[in-house]
Amino acid sequence: MPRALITGITGQDGSYMAEFLSAKGYEVHGLKRRSSSFNTDRVDHLYVDLHSAGSTFFLHYADLADASSLAWCLADIKPDEVYNLGAQSHVRVSFDVPEYTSDVVAIGAVRLLEAIRRTGLPCRFYQASSSEMFGSTPPPQNEATPFHPRSPYACAKVFAHQITVNYRESYGLHASCGILFNHESPRRGETFVTRKITRAVALIRMGMQQTLYLGNLDARRDWGFAGDYVEAMWAMLQQDSPDDYVIGTAESHSVREFTEAAFAHAGLDWREHVRIDPRYFRPAEVDDLRADASKARRVLGWEPRVGFQELVRMMVDADLTALRRKFQGGADAMDTHAAES
Ligand code: NAP
Ligand code: G4F
């Protein structure tokens, strides 16, 4: 049974990755940070009581800011594949906590790579690189496009990307970087713009919120479905040789278009509910991201299955269903605080 180790298993991608690998027959180990409350909602359905026989899903306390915890986990688990998905992944927040973001995203990757090198494990390594690294370089962006990062998060991702390439070239590590464009799902964090919109649409549709405050509606993103993208991550580690790949849909839409589509799907007119709040503007913006993922299609045979309209519908429907279920269950109303950031 192949064994995988996932950092960031409690996040959106980590949860889809854990599901995907479990279905493929992997023993899945995930690193989670200590939190004062349960933060395992996205993977609870995979959890089997450790006391029952045959469990193949395990969580371990560790932190990308804590080198010794990473080294111990690697030595104990001895994974065949390591997926480094953990990050302070919010671009706007990275302007508020640049030092912490750099520590976890950039130095965290070094800590993990160094632990792999020093333990001498023959494992394969995946680094979650980001289209944010392209920043202000115009689309379409592919593996040869120069980086021009526009946030502390993106700068840290560029470092993590380059150090992964460096460990591959210096030590022959089977280390690959997936340069993934924005990917979303019903499990997307509530403060990223797509989920912030679809969650608000559900609350407005149910009469529990009137107004949604957003920032820059002109920014364009290449939005795909997270469930499709974890398959590309896995495919990279199945290749004989490690390499870097751009993953995206090759189609971009503005935040305005996403907003319009989400409200329309719920039978609402977005102009009646959306207001601009400059607090959501960023010190430096990334205007236009659109992937040229032809290398991934050619080498990995990877193609996205879910398109833009289907993604919008899926996310709105999921938020509406969750809200209705919450009410039918008699629980308190869903937290109506406008999502920050
Ligand atoms: P996410 O939902 O924000 O999940 C991030 C994960 O990292 C969570 O499990 C989080 O744990 C964990 N984490 C945060 N700080 C950590 C630390 N100090 N030590 C260990 N773990 C830590 O992000 P995502 O959307 O799944 O993205 C996965 C990865 O892909 C990230 O590296 C992200 O930067 C990158 N990426 C994402 C996209 C995208 O569009 N989604 C695109 C390109 C690249 P908690 O649950 O405890 O917070
Ligand atoms: O949803 P976002 O916060 O995602 P962003 O900044 O593109 O970053 C995401 O994708 C990256 C891949 O390219 C990942 F690496 C990263 O970890 C993360 O997953 O913002 C998207 C766009 C931005 O241009 C932002 O300015 O939406 C704009 N926006 C407009 N109003 C807003 C809002 N973003 C947020 N979060 N909240 C708003 O109210």
Provide the low-confidence segments as ranges.
330-341
Using the CA coordinates, give the radius of gyration: 20 Å
The CATH topology name of the domain at 3-180 reads Rossmann fold
CATH first level of the domain at 3-180: Alpha Beta
Report the bound ligands by name, code or SMILES.
NADP nicotinamide-adenine-dinucleotide phosphate, ligand G4F
Full CATH superfamily name of the domain at 3-180: NAD(P)-binding Rossmann-like Domain
Fraction in beta strands: 5-15%
Instruction: Give the CA-based shape.
Output: globular
Mean pLDDT: 95
Gap between N and C termini, in Å?
Answer: 42 Å
Count up the helices.
10
User: How many strands appear in the DSSP assignment?
Assistant: 13
Strand line-up in the sheet with most strands? 3-2-1-4-5-6-11
Structural class: alpha/beta
Taken in chain order, the helices and strands follow as EHEEHEHHEHEEHEEEHEEHEHH
Largest sheet: 7 strands, parallel
Please state the oligomeric state of the protein chains shown: single chain
Keywords:
15% strand, single chain, binds ligand G4F, two-stranded parallel sheet, 341 residues, globular, Rossmann fold, disordered C terminus, alpha/beta
Task: Provide an overview of this structure.
- The structure is a single chain.
- With 341 residues, this protein is an alpha/beta fold.
- It has a domain at 3-180: Rossmann fold (3-Layer(aba) Sandwich).
- Helix content is 40%, strand content 15%.
- It has 10 helices and 13 strands.
- The protein has helices spanning 12-23, 67-77, 91-96, 98-119, 152-171, 193-205, 226-237, 255-265, 294-300, 308-328, and strands at residues 3-7, 27-32, 57-61, 81-84, 124-130, 175-180, 183-184, 212-214, 220-221, 224-225, 244-247, 253-254, 274-276.
- Strand 1, helix 1 and strand 2 (27-32) form a beta-alpha-beta unit.
- The longest helix is centred in the first third of the chain and has 22 residues, at 98-119.
- The protein is globular.
- The structure holds NADP nicotinamide-adenine-dinucleotide phosphate (NAP) and ligand G4F.
- Ligand G4F is lined by residues 89, 91-92, 130-132, 181-182, 191-194, 196, 214-216, 219, 221, 255, 280, 282, 285-286, 289, 341.
- Residues 7-8, 10-14, 31, 33, 35, 39, 63-65, 85-89, 104, 128, 130, 180, 182-183, 189 line the site of NADP nicotinamide-adenine-dinucleotide phosphate (NAP).
